[in-house]
Amino acid sequence: xxxxxxxxxxxxxxxxxxxxxxxxxxxxxxxxxxxxxxxxxxxxxxxxxxxxxxxxxxxxxxxxxxxxxxxxxxxxxxxxxxxxxxxxxxxxxxxxxxxxxxxxxxxxxxxxxxxxxxxxxxxxxxxxxxxxxxxxxxxxxxxxxxxxxxxxxxxxxxxxxxxxxxxxxxxxxxxxxxxxxxxxxxxxxxxxxxxxxxxxxxxxxxxxxxxxxxx
Length: 215
Description:
Elements: E1 28-30, E2 45-52, E3 55-60, E4 63-78, E5 85-99, E6 106-114, E7 117-124, E8 127-133, E9 136-141, E10 147-152, E11 156-160, E12 169-173, E13 183-184, E14 186-192, E15 195-200, E16 203-206, E17 212-214
Antiparallel strand pairs: 1-17, 2-4, 2-16, 3-4, 3-15, 4-5, 5-6, 5-7, 6-9, 7-8, 8-11, 9-10, 10-14, 11-12, 12-16, 13-15
């Protein structure tokens, strides 16, 4: 669901960006900052996206509230150059999750139900739109079932390659598309799903070198 890339989510773990019609063609994660990535510099391999204090906002049993975790971790495998860049998601993990006030900080459990892809499409210089495809998670909060739902959909992230700070990261940032902000996620299954759910997260990828979004 919550995507990475955003790894170049993931992201984002959150997620709506530039229209796919504006994309500039093929997309690569590149180890050098060039408009067209040399074949030997296209990154293929393990990616790890970490978000700190991501949140899911929505209306839970008729009351507006916030679900949050200490961390969200997305692990994936970058497949190299494509018409859009694909990352196979290998794991989605959450730690220390709670449904906050007005629900008296009910503890929650989260598990991934299905693992899919992150699709990254270059939209401008060193920028892209990442879409979570086929990823879903199951969330359950409180003994009375304040929240019990499988969430997924195709949430979208803005992705940004490394900048002059030299930290060698790809970051997915939440996009404010409504007063609630965040990426739109979809209730897939469950009797106690939130209405109007929005995912807000900032996933960061760390590698031993800079990485850029190129052609």
